[in-house]
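Workshop exercise sheet. Pairs work together: one partner reads the sequence aloud, the other fills in the structure field after running the prediction. Swap roles for the next sheet.
Pair: D.N. / O.F.
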Amino acid sequence: MSTSHFDIHIIGSGIIGLATAVTLQARGIKVALLDANKVGQGASLGNAGHIAAEQVFPIADASMLRHIPAMLFNPTGPLRIDWRYLPRLMPWAMQLLMNMRPEPFERIHQALMALNQSSIQTWQDFANQWKLNDWVHIEGSLLTVEKPVSVSLLTAHGNRLNEIGVANELLSQKELLAREPALQDNQLAALFFPNTGHITNLKSVMKQLHSTFRQLGGHTIEHCRVLDAAVHPDGIRLTTSQGDMTASKVMLSAGAHSKTLARKLTGVTVPLDTERGYHLMLPHEPQLLQIPVSSMDRRFIMTPMQEGLRLAGTVEYAGLDAPANMRRAHMLLQQAQPMLKAALNAADSVPWMGFRPSTADSLPIIDRIDKIFLNFGHQHLGLTQAVVSARMVAELYFNEPPVIDPKPYRLNRFK
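Structure field:
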Protein backbone atom coordinates (compact mmCIF):
# COMPACT_ATOMS: atom_id res chain seq x y z
CA MET A 1 0.00 0.00 0.00
CA SER A 2 1.42 3.41 -0.92
CA THR A 3 1.26 6.77 0.80
CA SER A 4 -1.53 7.84 -1.54
CA HIS A 5 -4.05 5.56 0.14
CA PHE A 6 -3.89 6.86 3.71
CA ASP A 7 -2.73 9.90 5.65
CA ILE A 8 -1.62 7.82 8.64
CA HIS A 9 -1.18 4.17 9.60
CA ILE A 10 -1.98 3.43 13.25
CA ILE A 11 -0.19 0.35 14.62
CA GLY A 12 -2.32 -1.18 17.35
CA SER A 13 -6.10 -1.11 17.72
CA GLY A 14 -6.66 -1.32 21.44
CA ILE A 15 -8.64 1.42 23.14
CA ILE A 16 -5.75 3.88 22.66
CA GLY A 17 -5.35 3.26 18.93
CA LEU A 18 -9.08 2.93 18.29
CA ALA A 19 -10.02 6.14 20.12
CA THR A 20 -7.32 8.02 18.21
CA ALA A 21 -8.35 6.47 14.89
CA VAL A 22 -11.98 7.57 15.36
CA THR A 23 -10.89 11.04 16.48
CA LEU A 24 -8.65 11.60 13.45
CA GLN A 25 -10.96 9.95 10.90
CA ALA A 26 -13.84 12.14 12.10
CA ARG A 27 -11.71 15.19 11.30
CA GLY A 28 -11.09 14.13 7.72
CA ILE A 29 -7.83 12.21 8.10
CA LYS A 30 -7.65 8.97 6.12
CA VAL A 31 -6.63 6.34 8.67
CA ALA A 32 -5.48 2.75 8.23
CA LEU A 33 -5.71 0.79 11.48
CA LEU A 34 -3.37 -2.21 11.75
CA ASP A 35 -3.50 -4.90 14.38
CA ALA A 36 -1.52 -8.09 14.91
CA ASN A 37 -4.74 -9.86 15.91
CA LYS A 38 -8.30 -8.52 15.88
CA VAL A 39 -9.43 -5.00 16.66
CA GLY A 40 -10.00 -4.24 20.33
CA GLN A 41 -8.37 -7.32 21.83
CA GLY A 42 -5.52 -7.55 24.33
CA ALA A 43 -5.42 -5.49 27.51
CA SER A 44 -8.21 -3.26 26.22
CA LEU A 45 -10.67 -6.15 26.32
CA GLY A 46 -9.51 -7.69 29.58
CA ASN A 47 -8.85 -4.71 31.83
CA ALA A 48 -10.79 -3.96 35.00
CA GLY A 49 -13.16 -1.61 33.18
CA HIS A 50 -12.50 1.11 35.77
CA ILE A 51 -12.12 4.71 34.57
CA ALA A 52 -9.71 5.40 37.40
CA ALA A 53 -9.39 9.18 37.51
CA GLU A 54 -8.54 8.96 41.21
CA GLN A 55 -5.27 7.10 40.60
CA VAL A 56 -2.95 10.09 40.35
CA PHE A 57 0.24 8.68 41.86
CA PRO A 58 3.03 6.64 40.18
CA ILE A 59 2.66 2.87 40.04
CA ALA A 60 5.15 2.44 42.90
CA ASP A 61 6.28 4.58 45.83
CA ALA A 62 8.87 4.26 48.57
CA SER A 63 6.30 3.21 51.17
CA MET A 64 5.71 -0.01 49.23
CA LEU A 65 9.32 -1.19 49.45
CA ARG A 66 9.01 -2.68 52.92
CA HIS A 67 5.97 -4.70 51.83
CA ILE A 68 7.58 -6.24 48.73
CA PRO A 69 9.26 -9.25 50.46
CA ALA A 70 5.99 -10.26 52.11
CA MET A 71 4.10 -9.89 48.83
CA LEU A 72 6.66 -11.94 46.91
CA PHE A 73 6.64 -14.81 49.39
CA ASN A 74 2.84 -14.91 49.58
CA PRO A 75 1.71 -17.35 46.86
CA THR A 76 -1.71 -15.67 46.74
CA GLY A 77 -0.30 -12.15 47.02
CA PRO A 78 -0.71 -9.28 44.55
CA LEU A 79 2.88 -9.39 43.24
CA ARG A 80 4.88 -12.12 41.53
CA ILE A 81 8.27 -12.02 39.79
CA ASP A 82 9.45 -14.84 37.57
CA TRP A 83 13.05 -15.08 38.78
CA ARG A 84 14.18 -16.25 35.33
CA TYR A 85 13.03 -12.89 33.98
CA LEU A 86 14.73 -10.84 36.68
CA PRO A 87 17.98 -10.03 34.75
CA ARG A 88 15.91 -8.50 31.92
CA LEU A 89 13.68 -6.69 34.37
CA MET A 90 16.44 -5.10 36.47
CA PRO A 91 17.32 -2.07 34.27
CA TRP A 92 13.64 -1.06 34.21
CA ALA A 93 13.23 -1.79 37.92
CA MET A 94 16.25 0.36 38.82
CA GLN A 95 14.81 3.31 36.92
CA LEU A 96 11.45 2.71 38.61
CA LEU A 97 13.25 2.81 41.96
CA MET A 98 15.01 6.09 41.09
CA ASN A 99 11.65 7.64 40.22
CA MET A 100 10.47 7.02 43.78
CA ARG A 101 12.71 9.89 44.96
CA PRO A 102 10.72 12.95 46.08
CA GLU A 103 11.47 15.25 43.11
CA PRO A 104 10.66 12.84 40.24
CA PHE A 105 7.77 11.33 42.22
CA GLU A 106 6.11 14.74 42.58
CA ARG A 107 6.75 15.65 38.94
CA ILE A 108 5.22 12.37 37.73
CA HIS A 109 2.28 12.82 40.09
CA GLN A 110 1.53 16.25 38.64
CA ALA A 111 1.68 14.87 35.08
CA LEU A 112 -0.72 12.04 35.95
CA MET A 113 -3.02 14.57 37.61
CA ALA A 114 -3.10 16.64 34.43
CA LEU A 115 -4.25 13.66 32.35
CA ASN A 116 -6.69 12.24 34.86
CA GLN A 117 -8.38 15.53 35.71
CA SER A 118 -9.53 15.73 32.10
CA SER A 119 -10.38 12.06 31.69
CA ILE A 120 -13.96 11.93 32.97
CA GLN A 121 -15.27 14.89 30.99
CA THR A 122 -13.50 13.78 27.81
CA TRP A 123 -14.91 10.27 28.23
CA GLN A 124 -18.42 11.67 28.73
CA ASP A 125 -18.13 13.89 25.66
CA PHE A 126 -16.70 11.00 23.63
CA ALA A 127 -19.49 8.66 24.81
CA ASN A 128 -22.14 11.22 23.87
CA GLN A 129 -20.61 11.81 20.45
CA TRP A 130 -20.19 8.16 19.47
CA LYS A 131 -23.23 6.57 21.18
CA LEU A 132 -21.42 4.76 23.97
CA ASN A 133 -23.64 5.88 26.84
CA ASP A 134 -25.23 2.46 27.29
CA TRP A 135 -21.86 1.19 28.57
CA VAL A 136 -19.95 4.20 29.94
CA HIS A 137 -21.22 4.85 33.47
CA ILE A 138 -19.85 7.74 35.53
CA GLU A 139 -21.29 6.70 38.88
CA GLY A 140 -18.23 6.61 41.11
CA SER A 141 -16.20 3.84 42.75
CA LEU A 142 -15.23 2.60 46.21
CA LEU A 143 -11.94 1.85 47.94
CA THR A 144 -12.50 -0.30 51.03
CA VAL A 145 -10.46 -1.55 54.00
CA GLU A 146 -11.01 -4.43 56.39
CA LYS A 147 -8.00 -4.27 58.72
CA PRO A 148 -8.47 -1.92 61.71
CA VAL A 149 -4.97 -0.54 61.19
CA SER A 150 -5.90 0.36 57.61
CA VAL A 151 -8.73 2.70 58.56
CA SER A 152 -6.33 5.48 59.55
CA LEU A 153 -4.30 4.91 56.37
CA LEU A 154 -7.47 5.14 54.30
CA THR A 155 -8.50 8.32 56.07
CA ALA A 156 -5.10 9.91 55.50
CA HIS A 157 -5.19 8.87 51.84
CA GLY A 158 -8.62 10.44 51.40
CA ASN A 159 -7.54 13.67 53.12
CA ARG A 160 -4.45 13.90 50.93
CA LEU A 161 -6.50 13.42 47.78
CA ASN A 162 -9.11 15.97 48.82
CA GLU A 163 -6.37 18.50 49.46
CA ILE A 164 -5.12 18.17 45.87
CA GLY A 165 -8.56 18.28 44.32
CA VAL A 166 -9.37 14.58 43.91
CA ALA A 167 -12.84 14.53 45.46
CA ASN A 168 -13.74 11.69 47.80
CA GLU A 169 -15.95 10.99 50.80
CA LEU A 170 -15.07 8.81 53.77
CA LEU A 171 -17.89 6.32 54.41
CA SER A 172 -18.46 4.59 57.72
CA GLN A 173 -19.15 0.87 57.75
CA LYS A 174 -22.88 1.56 58.01
CA GLU A 175 -22.81 3.99 55.07
CA LEU A 176 -20.70 1.59 53.00
CA LEU A 177 -23.01 -1.39 53.56
CA ALA A 178 -26.06 0.75 52.81
CA ARG A 179 -24.49 1.67 49.48
CA GLU A 180 -23.31 -1.85 48.63
CA PRO A 181 -25.41 -4.36 50.63
CA ALA A 182 -23.63 -7.37 49.12
CA LEU A 183 -20.43 -6.52 51.00
CA GLN A 184 -19.57 -8.44 54.15
CA ASP A 185 -19.51 -6.55 57.46
CA ASN A 186 -15.77 -7.16 57.73
CA GLN A 187 -15.44 -4.13 55.43
CA LEU A 188 -14.84 -1.38 57.97
CA ALA A 189 -14.81 1.80 55.91
CA ALA A 190 -14.38 3.10 52.39
CA LEU A 191 -13.60 6.11 50.26
CA PHE A 192 -16.25 6.96 47.68
CA PHE A 193 -14.87 8.67 44.58
CA PRO A 194 -17.75 10.41 42.78
CA ASN A 195 -15.73 11.51 39.75
CA THR A 196 -14.81 8.07 38.48
CA GLY A 197 -16.62 5.56 36.33
CA HIS A 198 -16.63 2.16 34.72
CA ILE A 199 -17.46 0.50 31.45
CA THR A 200 -20.05 -2.24 31.71
CA ASN A 201 -19.25 -3.92 28.39
CA LEU A 202 -15.79 -3.40 26.93
CA LYS A 203 -16.54 -5.64 23.97
CA SER A 204 -19.55 -3.54 22.99
CA VAL A 205 -17.59 -0.31 23.30
CA MET A 206 -14.85 -1.68 21.04
CA LYS A 207 -17.39 -2.98 18.54
CA GLN A 208 -19.24 0.33 18.44
CA LEU A 209 -16.04 2.34 17.98
CA HIS A 210 -14.79 -0.01 15.27
CA SER A 211 -18.12 0.23 13.45
CA THR A 212 -18.06 4.02 13.75
CA PHE A 213 -14.50 4.15 12.43
CA ARG A 214 -15.46 2.17 9.34
CA GLN A 215 -18.62 4.20 8.77
CA LEU A 216 -16.45 7.32 8.81
CA GLY A 217 -14.34 5.80 6.03
CA GLY A 218 -11.55 4.27 8.08
CA HIS A 219 -9.82 1.09 6.92
CA THR A 220 -8.90 -1.84 9.16
CA ILE A 221 -6.27 -4.48 8.49
CA GLU A 222 -6.48 -7.27 11.06
CA HIS A 223 -4.01 -10.12 11.63
CA CYS A 224 -1.32 -7.77 10.31
CA ARG A 225 1.73 -7.93 12.55
CA VAL A 226 4.32 -5.22 11.95
CA LEU A 227 7.65 -7.04 11.91
CA ASP A 228 9.95 -4.17 11.03
CA ALA A 229 9.80 -0.43 10.42
CA ALA A 230 12.19 2.11 8.99
CA VAL A 231 12.00 5.80 8.13
CA HIS A 232 13.05 6.67 4.57
CA PRO A 233 12.95 9.96 2.62
CA ASP A 234 10.01 8.73 0.58
CA GLY A 235 8.01 7.49 3.57
CA ILE A 236 7.93 5.00 6.41
CA ARG A 237 8.36 1.44 5.29
CA LEU A 238 6.55 -1.20 7.28
CA THR A 239 7.35 -4.87 6.92
CA THR A 240 4.25 -6.78 7.97
CA SER A 241 2.90 -10.31 7.99
CA GLN A 242 0.70 -9.22 5.08
CA GLY A 243 3.52 -7.75 3.02
CA ASP A 244 5.38 -4.46 2.76
CA MET A 245 3.60 -1.12 3.16
CA THR A 246 4.67 2.47 2.73
CA ALA A 247 3.09 5.01 5.04
CA SER A 248 3.27 8.79 4.94
CA LYS A 249 2.77 8.99 8.72
CA VAL A 250 2.61 6.35 11.45
CA MET A 251 1.23 6.30 14.98
CA LEU A 252 2.54 3.62 17.32
CA SER A 253 -0.01 2.43 19.88
CA ALA A 254 0.85 -1.24 20.31
CA GLY A 255 0.86 -1.19 24.10
CA ALA A 256 3.46 -3.43 25.71
CA HIS A 257 4.63 -4.51 22.25
CA SER A 258 5.66 -0.95 21.30
CA LYS A 259 9.21 -0.88 22.63
CA THR A 260 11.00 -2.54 19.70
CA LEU A 261 9.13 -0.61 17.02
CA ALA A 262 9.66 2.66 18.89
CA ARG A 263 13.41 2.07 18.79
CA LYS A 264 13.30 1.27 15.06
CA LEU A 265 11.23 4.36 14.26
CA THR A 266 12.93 6.88 16.55
CA GLY A 267 16.25 5.40 17.67
CA VAL A 268 15.22 5.78 21.33
CA THR A 269 14.97 2.84 23.71
CA VAL A 270 11.99 3.43 25.96
CA PRO A 271 12.28 1.94 29.48
CA LEU A 272 9.08 -0.05 29.16
CA ASP A 273 8.17 -3.42 30.57
CA THR A 274 4.93 -5.29 30.99
CA GLU A 275 3.02 -5.82 34.20
CA ARG A 276 1.05 -8.93 33.40
CA GLY A 277 -2.45 -8.55 34.82
CA TYR A 278 -5.13 -11.19 35.36
CA HIS A 279 -8.87 -11.23 35.66
CA LEU A 280 -11.54 -13.80 36.44
CA MET A 281 -14.99 -13.24 34.93
CA LEU A 282 -17.96 -14.62 36.86
CA PRO A 283 -20.80 -14.70 34.31
CA HIS A 284 -23.51 -15.59 36.82
CA GLU A 285 -22.93 -12.58 39.08
CA PRO A 286 -23.86 -9.56 36.92
CA GLN A 287 -25.95 -7.64 39.48
CA LEU A 288 -24.01 -8.18 42.69
CA LEU A 289 -22.43 -4.71 42.94
CA GLN A 290 -23.51 -1.29 41.72
CA ILE A 291 -20.09 0.28 41.12
CA PRO A 292 -16.44 -0.88 41.15
CA VAL A 293 -15.12 -1.86 44.56
CA SER A 294 -11.37 -1.96 45.19
CA SER A 295 -9.71 -3.30 48.31
CA MET A 296 -6.76 -1.39 49.74
CA ASP A 297 -5.77 -4.40 51.84
CA ARG A 298 -6.21 -7.07 49.16
CA ARG A 299 -5.04 -4.91 46.21
CA PHE A 300 -7.60 -5.96 43.62
CA ILE A 301 -10.88 -4.71 42.17
CA MET A 302 -14.38 -6.07 41.52
CA THR A 303 -16.24 -4.44 38.64
CA PRO A 304 -19.90 -5.10 37.78
CA MET A 305 -20.40 -5.64 34.05
CA GLN A 306 -23.23 -6.75 31.81
CA GLU A 307 -21.44 -10.06 31.25
CA GLY A 308 -20.89 -10.70 34.95
CA LEU A 309 -18.65 -9.66 37.82
CA ARG A 310 -15.01 -9.06 36.85
CA LEU A 311 -12.35 -9.72 39.49
CA ALA A 312 -9.13 -8.08 38.36
CA GLY A 313 -5.71 -7.30 39.67
CA THR A 314 -2.32 -8.76 40.57
CA VAL A 315 1.02 -7.75 39.08
CA GLU A 316 3.31 -10.34 37.52
CA TYR A 317 6.69 -9.65 35.95
CA ALA A 318 7.50 -12.41 33.49
CA GLY A 319 7.78 -10.65 30.14
CA LEU A 320 5.81 -11.01 26.94
CA ASP A 321 6.71 -14.60 26.07
CA ALA A 322 6.10 -16.69 29.20
CA PRO A 323 2.82 -18.63 29.19
CA ALA A 324 -0.03 -17.33 31.30
CA ASN A 325 -0.27 -18.68 34.83
CA MET A 326 -4.05 -18.85 35.12
CA ARG A 327 -3.80 -19.97 38.73
CA ARG A 328 -3.27 -16.28 39.47
CA ALA A 329 -6.60 -15.47 37.85
CA HIS A 330 -8.43 -18.11 39.88
CA MET A 331 -6.76 -16.83 43.08
CA LEU A 332 -8.81 -13.67 42.71
CA LEU A 333 -11.88 -15.68 43.76
CA GLN A 334 -10.15 -16.34 47.09
CA GLN A 335 -9.63 -12.60 47.50
CA ALA A 336 -13.21 -11.66 46.63
CA GLN A 337 -15.21 -14.23 48.58
CA PRO A 338 -14.32 -13.01 52.11
CA MET A 339 -15.48 -9.50 51.14
CA LEU A 340 -18.99 -10.66 50.23
CA LYS A 341 -21.92 -12.02 52.24
CA ALA A 342 -23.17 -14.64 49.81
CA ALA A 343 -21.17 -17.44 48.22
CA LEU A 344 -20.05 -16.42 44.75
CA ASN A 345 -21.25 -18.50 41.83
CA ALA A 346 -18.02 -19.37 40.05
CA ALA A 347 -19.59 -21.74 37.52
CA ASP A 348 -18.39 -21.12 33.97
CA SER A 349 -15.83 -18.58 35.20
CA VAL A 350 -13.35 -17.44 32.55
CA PRO A 351 -9.72 -16.56 33.38
CA TRP A 352 -7.70 -14.06 31.37
CA MET A 353 -4.20 -12.56 31.25
CA GLY A 354 -2.97 -9.44 29.47
CA PHE A 355 -0.01 -7.09 29.25
CA ARG A 356 -0.04 -3.67 30.89
CA PRO A 357 2.50 -1.38 29.15
CA SER A 358 4.37 0.37 31.99
CA THR A 359 7.19 2.85 31.60
CA ALA A 360 9.71 3.29 34.39
CA ASP A 361 8.28 6.73 35.16
CA SER A 362 4.60 5.64 35.06
CA LEU A 363 3.83 8.14 32.27
CA PRO A 364 2.75 7.42 28.70
CA ILE A 365 4.65 8.56 25.64
CA ILE A 366 2.44 10.97 23.72
CA ASP A 367 4.54 12.76 21.14
CA ARG A 368 5.24 13.60 17.53
CA ILE A 369 8.66 13.14 15.94
CA ASP A 370 8.18 14.55 12.44
CA LYS A 371 6.01 11.91 10.74
CA ILE A 372 6.03 9.52 13.71
CA PHE A 373 3.33 9.78 16.37
CA LEU A 374 3.66 7.90 19.65
CA ASN A 375 0.78 7.01 21.96
CA PHE A 376 1.58 4.13 24.29
CA GLY A 377 2.85 3.22 27.77
CA HIS A 378 -0.23 4.12 29.83
CA GLN A 379 0.41 1.40 32.50
CA HIS A 380 -2.80 0.69 34.48
CA LEU A 381 -4.51 3.80 33.08
CA GLY A 382 -4.92 3.05 29.39
CA LEU A 383 -8.70 2.97 29.56
CA THR A 384 -8.80 6.04 31.79
CA GLN A 385 -6.52 8.16 29.60
CA ALA A 386 -7.46 6.83 26.14
CA VAL A 387 -9.69 9.69 25.03
CA VAL A 388 -7.47 12.40 26.53
CA SER A 389 -4.50 10.86 24.70
CA ALA A 390 -6.46 10.77 21.43
CA ARG A 391 -7.24 14.46 21.80
CA MET A 392 -3.57 15.23 22.45
CA VAL A 393 -2.49 13.35 19.32
CA ALA A 394 -5.06 15.28 17.28
CA GLU A 395 -3.60 18.52 18.64
CA LEU A 396 -0.14 17.37 17.57
CA TYR A 397 -1.42 16.32 14.14
CA PHE A 398 -3.10 19.65 13.41
CA ASN A 399 -0.51 21.79 15.24
CA GLU A 400 -3.18 23.11 17.60
CA PRO A 401 -2.52 24.73 20.98
CA PRO A 402 -2.43 21.97 23.59
CA VAL A 403 -5.01 21.84 26.35
CA ILE A 404 -2.53 19.88 28.52
CA ASP A 405 1.17 20.73 28.63
CA PRO A 406 2.73 17.97 26.45
CA LYS A 407 6.25 18.22 27.88
CA PRO A 408 6.03 15.47 30.57
CA TYR A 409 4.95 12.87 27.98
CA ARG A 410 7.56 13.56 25.30
CA LEU A 411 9.93 10.89 24.10
CA ASN A 412 13.05 13.01 24.62
CA ARG A 413 12.82 12.52 28.40
CA PHE A 414 14.44 9.12 27.77
CA LYS A 415 17.34 10.31 25.62
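Discussion prompt: The first strand starts at residue 8 and ends at 11. What would you look at next?
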